[in-house]
Amino acid sequence: MTDCLFCRIVARESPADIEYEDDAVLGFADIYPKAPVHVLIVPKQHVTSIQTMTPADVDAIGRCLLAARTLGERKGFGERGYRVVVNCGPEGGQVVAHVHFHFLAGRRGSG
Ligand code: 5GP
Ligand code: ZN
User: Fold this and answer.
1) Which in 23, 29, 68, 88 has the greatest CB count within 10 A?
2) Which atom of ligand 1 is nearest to the CA of 87?
């Protein structure tokens, strides 16, 4: 079993409320939401952070942004808008070492 929390969620070895899934990406509700809608969008393939990504990870990272777009449309925020945030490294506030996009919506300046 992997010691990466988000890889375990992707593998369904740890529970999460799944909000979005395709072949490359999983989106699930943040356990401590900072906005009315707070979804974490992760590549299924393990990428530690933006700071360690390589050209081989570009597709997986780009697919996360496409997933944010789809999620925004599905949840009715396409026109209203939302924030997509990536924390990177200790001083950037990254706690979980599997790259993730915070999708925040439902309030002006969400999060
Ligand atoms: P970071 O600070 O690394 O950018 O964001 C990590 C996020 O993961 C935080 O917003 C935190 O609330 C969320 N989180 C931490 N542990 C879990 C968990 O076990 N399940 C879920 N769904 N979210 C988690
Ligand atoms: Zn991982």
Assistant:
1) 68
2) 4
List the one residue out of 52, 51, 53, 38 whose CA is nearest residue 85.
38
What spacing in Å lies between the alpha carbon of 48 and ligand 2's midpoint?
7
User: Is the Cα dihedral 57, 32, 94, 7 positive or negative?
Assistant: negative
Q: How far is CA 82 from the centre of its chain?
A: 13
Q: Which residues surround ligand 1 with Cβ inside 6 Å?
A: 5, 16, 28-32, 40, 87, 93-96
Predicted TM-score (pTM) of the model is 0.97
Continuous H helices in 1-111: 5-10, 58-74
Report the alpha-carbon distance of residue 47 to residue 21 in Å, rounded: 17
- Distance, in Å, from the CA atom of 53 to the CA atom of 71, rounded to the nearest integer, reads 24
Under 8 Å between Cβ of 47 and 61: yes
